[in-house]
Design goal:
The protein has 132 residues and is an alpha+beta fold. The chain has helices spanning 59-65, 106-119; strands at residues 11-20, 23-24, 27-32, 40-46, 52-58, 70-72, 75-78, 88-95, 98-105. The protein has two helices and nine strands. A hairpin with a 2-residue loop joins β1 and β2.
Amino acid sequence: MPSEEQDCADLSLTIWPYVSLHETLPVRARFSYDRTQPLKVRVEFSNDIGGAVTWVLSRDLLMAGLHRPTGDRDVWIWPPCQRQGGDSLWLLLQGDTGAALLECRIAPLRAWLAETLRSVPFRPSAPLPQAR
C-alpha cells in the first residue's frame, strides 16, 4: 500500500472518442496524479500520428462521475447505465475549438482513483453555516 510520501503510478487506457454518430477511433489516455496537487488529475490524450493534448481535471469531479452524472463548465461525466449492463464511463470535454465525447472502461479508472485516495485521502471541507 502506498504511503503518503508516494505518488500513484500513471494509468494508461485506450479510450474511444466519437468522431461521428456511429464511429469511434482509439486514442491513448495517460492519467497522472501528483500528491502535491491533490485536487488535480492530468490526462494526456495522444494518437498514433503524434498528436497530443492535455487536460487537467478535478479529482473530485472524476470520483463523483463514477456514481452519478456530474459536470463543471467544460467537463461533464456520466457513469455506466447499470440497467443496460454498461461498463463505460462517458466524458464530454468542451473547449474553445470544439468538443469531444469520450468513452472509457470504468473499472481501471475506479481502481486507479482508489490509489489516489490512498496517497492523499479526501479532506473534509469546512462545515456549511447553519441556517437560523
